[in-house]
Design goal:
globular, three-stranded antiparallel β-sheet, 606 residues, Arc Repressor Mutant, subunit A
Length: 606
């Protein structure tokens, strides 16, 4: 279906949806509020139609890393990935498949998998295929609010007003009680740590207050979702080979190059580089960096480096004759990368994913001061270069955002590698200690992959030694270390004879360093085989019955009820991982940690 036809059909459907929704809302409201008689002043139909018309125009068009500043229709570059919960897989092409799962859902996925585009798809498909009024709420906008000013209900109402919803707030609140809405809360993981608890409370309270509506939250995976007991969590699936090929076929790109890439993807690239080719963002970058004589990097860090180089140097794919974007700042590739790396570093640690022009220029000025001492350039020109030349920022309305957060995370890590050992150690350690929730970004993964030995030296070694000392001072008691790191055990029923267990994190800092030591030492997470499945299932049933499905049971409660030893048997994998980490710690060669060495020993290593 062409973009023109799609919009035409949507316009017709919008009118019908607005009218039918208004009729249903009004009928339910008058049953509850008998004193409402001024129907002429409460025109839900007009309010819904105006809102849907304006919001559909905005949500159906998007700017991406491939197209830069030229917005394209969502379905010209989006492929619906599936979602799954254990062994249940759901086709998301029709939003009703998702809504049939329940009224409260969480969809998680890694960076670049397409969560935000899926939420836009759900919005558009809901207009066509449901009787619900969809509302897309970008949660990162709450980062501009003071903690005491955050109200999800008011934020939703403000979102509606932006798209022309002309109805008094009290009448909007009435409509919330009728269950006529689909709320799409996008990007929970982009909410600042300092605000996350308040936002969580707001969303869960809102979902309980207006439970007849449908609510979907998108985010990178977070352990805290275990506490959202009324929400069912699904994870995004990677693109299949057929979906990857379909995505490439619909992209607007140099046809000759696209054809060659499509054939290579079908023949070998999808299977050889599956971790890249099954991710929509990385697959798009593969296309952009593809040339017959250039190999695709095996590591993700090299992949992003090559992608950035391509973005900076590339010729406009829609023009011929050697046209190349002008770099207004006058910076060469290496200098541009230095300034951009600090821009990413500063904004990442300030939890800035979206910028006004003022905040973007402030970060550029600081980056110039910190990294560029060979001359000068105009801050506004560098901002234009990030948008128009390198296409790493997107300009929408009054604000700027990264074309994808992955670039911010990668270059924040690149700048961090340039810090001295002492600076890096103090800064990253301080950040980890003040972060109460699990780190959901790729920053630490990238930093580890860029410099694994320095990561061990600066980030992992001292806290692991400290943890080991505490462990030894308690006679290497497994009960002590489990209760030191965690506060309780939870159990979740996946299906009739399948359960999953988890530990509720208490010491997030030590849990983080343990997790990354497992990564550093290449721990085989498939190594643990549960040979007592029947016994474990019986324990799970007992815990679920005893605690009425409580999502996490405190150790104190389990001890008091005489069930601690049984419950601990279900999480033996955690004890095994901790034992592995502390044993591996003894194998670390501290001679590589920058101590004074002879010329001869350094020569041998080099």
């Amino acid at each position: 279906m062409s973009e023109f036809d799609y919009n035409k059909i949507t316009a017709e459907v919008i009118t019908d949806l607005a009218k039918s929704s208004a009729k249903a809302v009004w009928g339910k409201i008058t049953q509850t509020y008998k004193d409402i008689s001024n129907k002429g002043d409460i025109d839900y139909g007009m309010a819904f139609e105006k809102y849907l018309t304006e919001s559909e125009k905005y949500i159906s068009m998007a700017k991406t890393i491939l197209y830069g500043q030229i917005p394209h229709h969502l379905y010209s570059f989006f492929e619906c990935m599936g979602i799954k919960n254990k062994d249940k897989e759901i086709d998301t092409s029709n939003v009703n498949n998702i809504l049939s799962l329940g009224h409260k859902l969480i969809i998680t996925g890694t960076g670049g998998i397409g969560k935000s585009m899926l939420m836009r798809h759900c919005f558009l498909d809901a207009i066509t295929n449901t009787t619900l009024i969809p509302i897309l709420i970008e949660l990162r906008g709450l980062n501009e609010y003071a903690l005491e000013d955050i109200s999800i209900e008011k934020y939703i109402y403000n979102t509606l007003n932006i798209f022309g919803f002309k109805l008094e707030e009290k009448y909007f609140r009435y409509s919330l009680e009728t269950g006529c809405y689909l709320f799409l809360f996008d990007g929970y993981d982009e909410v600042k740590n300092s605000l996350s608890s308040k936002v969580t409370q707001e969303i869960t309270d809102f979902s309980n207050k207006y439970m007849d509506n449908y609510m979907i939250v998108s985010s990178r995976p977070l352990e805290e979702f275990v506490g959202w007991s009324d929400f069912i969590e699904f994870s995004s699936m990677n693109l299949t080979k057929e979906q990857a090929l379909s995505l490439i076929s619909k992209l607007e790109y140099d046809e000759e190059l696209k054809k060659k890439f499509y054939e290579k993807l079908d023949e070998e690239l999808y299977d050889k580089y599956n971790s890249f080719a099954s991710n929509p963002l990385l697959l798009t970058i593969m296309l952009m960096t593809f040339e017959g004589r250039v190999s695709i990097p095996d590591s993700k860090t090299d992949f992003y480096e090559q992608a950035f180089s391509t973005l900076f140097h590339r010729h406009d794919a829609r023009k011929r004759g050697g046209y190349k974007r002008e770099i207004q700042s006058g910076l060469g590739y290496e200098d541009f990368k230095k300034v951009f790396s600090y821009f990413c570093f500063r904004s990442f640690f300030k939890n800035q994913y979206e910028f006004t022009e003022k905040t973007a220029l402030e970060n550029i000025a600081k980056a110039k001061e910190k990294t560029y001492s060979f001359g000068t350039f105009e801050d506004s020109n560098f901002l234009n270069d990030m948008v128009k030349a390198a296409c790493v920022l997107v300009h929408e309305g009054l604000n700027y955002r990264f074309s994808h957060r992955s670039f911010q995370e990668y270059f924040a890590a690149v700048y961090t590698t340039q810090l001295s050992d002492d600076e890096q150690k103090k800064f990253v350690t301080s950040w980890l200690k003040t972060t109460s929730r699990r780190i959901t970004t790729d920053f630490l993964d990238i930093l580890h992959d860029l410099q694994p030995d320095r990561f061990m030296k600066n980030i992992l070694y001292d806290p692991l030694c400290d943890l080991n000392k505490k462990y030894e001072s308690h006679n290497k008691d497994n009960n002590w270390i489990i209760q030191y790191l965690f506060s309780g055990i939870g159990v979740r029923r996946n299906n009739e004879n399948d359960f999953s267990f988890f530990l509720t994190v208490k010491e997030s800092y030590y849990n983080t360093v343990v997790r990354y030591m497992l990564r550093y030492a290449h721990y085989d997470f498939n190594d643990f085989i549960d040979e007592e499945k029947d016994e474990i299932n019986n324990i799970a049933e007992e815990l679920l019955n005893k605690y009425c499905g409580k999502y996490s049971i405190d150790f104190e409660q389990l001890i008091e009820d005489g069930l601690y030893e049984k419950a601990l048997k279900c999480v033996e994998w955690a004890v095994k991982q901790i034992d592995f980490v502390l044993k591996e710690l003894k194998n670390i060669d501290t001679n590589t940690f920058g101590r004074k060495r002879t010329f001869e020993s350094m020569l041998e290593d080099l």
